[in-house]
Task: inverse folding
């Protein structure tokens, strides 16, 4: 083979790698769908699944139109139409079939799946009472705007958080999980709890999920898809080692070791912290996988286990604390993604300081700056946009519709028909 | 204490560079991590008897009545 053929072969390998990573990441969304459907009451199951499904539909074109451009235009803070940013505009020659560019489309696809994940994290927390239209507006802003801005600042080798502070967030514990969780927290402040979640004295009441096995199956799909998520965070190059998104050396083996050890630690930590609660235990596995995100490229596997173990405990305790404060996060999304996401960035500073990153080094102060930026960047837009929607009476369904259930009141069909109910008695619209 | 075995960018990207996980230049730290992991796994196995013992938690017992670990 001559050099041109070798180059083409290498480009095709890259193309294949990211294409199939993106395809496997769809499992995360099959998982979110099942996870949230299982956590709802029967009267809301189909409405919950529709919101999750439509997240993917609405984020795709909006990410194509402006999300991809934000990533390349904003690394220094405010948008600048650099050459890379111009190439990311939807009418650029790179943003379509092009025989001289095998890479842009598959990178875009992988990033799009990160966007799905970010928006879907919110969908579970707000189930059973948010209006479909408002939810989709919030999902579009979060999935195609807010998290992409965070990624441009802190998840890119020319982002200001990386260049000025040496911020290191390899697996997006900050720009995906923390940003999404705190955006969701801002929405929850405006949305309020489900009817019946708190009694008159403010004591939280149990709203049991209608199908916990479905939720657990969903989380197993999410775990599987997360390996593809992490693989897609690695930069495949034709010579030399794999690189992190900051262009620092790494190996895929580190993912195999540390993601799995983090999962194990998170599940065990949550099991002990929740006294064996099945929902929290399996969510703890996810919290463990998120806890190791920022430093997964450099952690020793045993350290990954310990960080994941602590993350499982943090998620459970954060979830309990939120409930005591009167916040109704129906699936524990803020606790799992926010608690473990913040811990991920902090643990990187505590246990993996001193790694060279071009002119800078990883450090605890750099991680703390990144943590504060991610929390604020998530919380403020979520709080303010949902406040605006609330003022327009668009955020929450009416109490009558909420009591009836969103399947009938929004969709006009029951998602789950009780076995004894004749089909002819289902409501029609 | 730096957890990186490399002090400079040039050393880190040197093609001769090999192991780069946290504290690989301080093996005693890695031994501590492994020992802690082992202790937690053993603790978890013991605790699992207490959490999921039918005598302590008969069918239908609300979660609040479960024994503390």
Result:
């Amino acid at each position: 083979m001559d050099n041109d053929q070798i180059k083409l072969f290498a480009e095709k390998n890259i193309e294949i790698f990211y294409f199939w990573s993106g395809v496997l990441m769809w499992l995360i969304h099959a998982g979110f769908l099942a996870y949230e459907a299982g956590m709802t009451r029967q009267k809301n199951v189909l409405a919950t699944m529709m919101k999750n499904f439509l997240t993917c539909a609405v984020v795709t074109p909006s990410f194509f139109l402006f999300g991809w451009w934000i990533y390349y235009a904003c690394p220094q803070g405010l948008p600048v139409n650099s050459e890379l940013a111009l190439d990311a505009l939807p009418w650029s020659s790179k943003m379509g079939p092009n025989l001289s560019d095998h890479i842009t489309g598959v990178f875009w696809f992988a990033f799009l799946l990160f966007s799905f994940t970010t928006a879907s994290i919110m969908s579970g927390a707000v189930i059973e009472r948010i209006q479909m239209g408002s939810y989709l507006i919030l999902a579009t802003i979060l999935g195609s705007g807010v998290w992409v801005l965070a990624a441009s600042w802190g998840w890119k080798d020319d982002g200001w958080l990386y260049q000025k502070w040496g911020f290191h967030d390899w697996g997006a514990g900050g720009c995906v999980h923390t940003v999404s969780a705190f955006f969701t927290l801002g929405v929850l402040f405006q949305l309020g709890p489900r009817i019946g979640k708190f009694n008159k004295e403010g004591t939280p009441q149990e709203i049991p999920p209608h199908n916990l096995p479905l939720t657990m199956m969903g989380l197993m799909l999410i775990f599987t898809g997360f390996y593809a998520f992490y693989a897609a965070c690695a930069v495949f190059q034709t010579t030399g080692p794999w690189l992190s998104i900051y262009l620092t050396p790494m190996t895929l083996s580190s993912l195999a070791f540390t993601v799995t050890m983090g999962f194990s630690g998170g599940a065990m930590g949550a099991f002990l912290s929740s006294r064996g609660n099945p929902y929290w235990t399996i969510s703890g596995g996810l919290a463990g996988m998120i806890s190791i995100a920022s430093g997964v490229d450099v952690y020793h596997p045993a350290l990954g286990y310990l960080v994941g173990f602590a993350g499982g405990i943090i998620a459970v305790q954060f979830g309990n604390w939120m409930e005591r404060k009167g916040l109704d996060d129906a699936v524990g999304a803020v606790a799992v993604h926010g608690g473990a996401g913040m811990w991920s960035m902090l643990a990187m500073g505590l246990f993996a300081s001193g790694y060279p990153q071009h002119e800078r080094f990883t450090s605890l102060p750099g991680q703390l700056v990144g943590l504060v930026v991610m929390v604020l960047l998530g919380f403020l837009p979520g709080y303010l946009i949902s406040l605006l929607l609330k003022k327009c009476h668009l955020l929450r369904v009416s109490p009558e519709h909420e009591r009836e259930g969103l399947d009938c009141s929004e969709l006009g069909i029951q998602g789950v028909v009780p076995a004894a109910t004749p089909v002819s008695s289902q409501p029609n619209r | 204490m730096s957890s990186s075995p490399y002090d400079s960018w040039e050393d880190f990207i040197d093609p001769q560079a090999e192991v780069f996980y946290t504290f690989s230049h301080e093996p005693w730290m890695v031994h501590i991590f492994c020992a802690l992991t082992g202790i937690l796994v053993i603790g978890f196995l013991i605790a699992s008897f207490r959490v999921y013992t039918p005598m302590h938690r008969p069918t239908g017992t609300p979660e609040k009545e479960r024994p503390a670990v």
